[in-house]
Amino acid sequence: MTVRRALAVLAVLVSAGSLPATASPDGLRLLMVDQTWCEWCERWDAEIAGVYPITDEGRAAPLIRHDIHDPLPDGVVLDRPARFTPTFILLCAGREAGRIEGYPGEDFFWALLARLLDDLDSTADKTDTANAGADATPTRNCDAQS
User: In this structure, which of 25, 67, 93, 128 has its CB flanked by the most CB atoms within 10 Å?
Assistant: First the structure.
């Protein structure tokens, strides 16, 4: 077993026990819609899963895995259903804030996820500036999105 695969397995085991089965109504989460025998999900597991929880992105938006055939977790509202796997849906206070359909490979995945997070930050910055006084500090606040 390679070191990368061992890290991926470890991260999946750790995250399976440490994350709730439902999406938190507050905060950011990354919902990974997957299914058994999904080749691209397995590739994501091999390339990303092991490091995701320890990255800035993983700490900002902890991962929730969800089988495409199961009902959505309580409190999750999507703009449209996921049609194929993997689909990565950024949830902000349980509502869809963006998505990545498919797994484009390690380099593109990180860039696309960074863009989703940046877009969310931009929206939060505008909301903070509009709603607060001179002491406003930009935050990644999911409540500002609803």
Answer: 93
